[in-house]
Amino acid sequence: MKCKKTKIMVCLLTVFFVSLQIQAAETLIGEWNMDGAVVTKTVSVLNSNNGQGGGFINESRTVIESSYGDVVFGGPRAASYYAIYPASQTAGGLGASGEAGDKSLLVRGGEKESAFIGGVMYEVESGFKIELNFKLFEPREPANVGVTYYPNGWITVPNSKPILVTGGINRFKIELVTDGEGSGTAKLNLVCWPASGSAVSLETDFAVNVDNWNHVAAWLEGGNLYIQLNNGTVFSNSAGISLKASFDPALSYNGLTFGAWNGASVWPRAYLDNLKLYSIEPICGDWGYLKGDLDKDCKIDFIDIDLFIQQWLSCTEPGVTDCVNVNQ
């Protein structure tokens, strides 16, 4: 093939295959509407007290069935390390939609009362998005759960931070924050643990509806944290972080936990429904562009050289003959 020098890049493009980088998007890991059948199954639970390194053993548990992974009642550790303390599925009509057949997961605030979905956080690497409906649980039932509650009913200790959902071992959590005993107001706090350094947090305003259902979306994308409550203001934090890596999946826990399976005074009282979990990995542009990347596809290749040649000796200087205004 013969090519004129001024057309050499066109010829090269006809004989070389240039692969284009496809930008990543949100990848759905799973969604759970809490309406599945409640059955008893053998499930894997942690054979350790701290979630790391102990491996797993099998245990018989009650679950809400789901094709994305069953919602297991009780915490992710074996009963030999603590009692199971199970959450429960509500009757129909108590889900976020209010429709007759819609159910939800109820965590009533008993010590370590929780539920979990095993393993799903192994599919999350550097970024994620989680969505969840929640409703604070009233009336107070201290006689049933053995915990003294304060006037607003959904905290166990003044100024405590009950945990709604946790991702893995110290990867992220969403917690409820009140402004004092009996205040009747609350906000949410997203906490993420980066690959290195201290945890980073981001709060909403005091906009939790304490009487009705709420929706929260929280995510880590391009190194930045975001949280939105009830389709209101999107709060953001230019943290510049990547999510802490998961531990060895053969030995350590990395699921989603509803309620607090560890730690004192952080047990929530809430209905939970319509959870969605996504993986968000870095996309083209998150790390900036090289100066020679004219088409901004995150690599310098023959396309960029061709674009450069097409503009060779062109100019944009105002008032000069043959120069062009690229803003028009």
Can you describe what's shown?
There is one protein chain. The chain is mainly β and 328 residues long. It has two domains: 1-23 and 284-328, no CATH class; 27-279, Jelly Rolls. The protein has helices at residues 8-15, 142-145, 302-310, and strands spanning 27-32, 38-46, 56-64, 71-73, 88-89, 105-107, 115-117, 128-136, 163-167, 172-178, 186-192, 200-203, 214-221, 224-229, 234-237, 256-258, 270-279. The strands form two sheets. A nine-stranded antiparallel β-sheet has the order 2-3-4-7-16-9-10-11-12, with no helix packed on it. Strands 1, 5, 6, 8, 13, 14, 15 and 17 form an eight-stranded antiparallel β-sheet that branches. Strand 13 and strand 14 (224-229) form a beta hairpin.
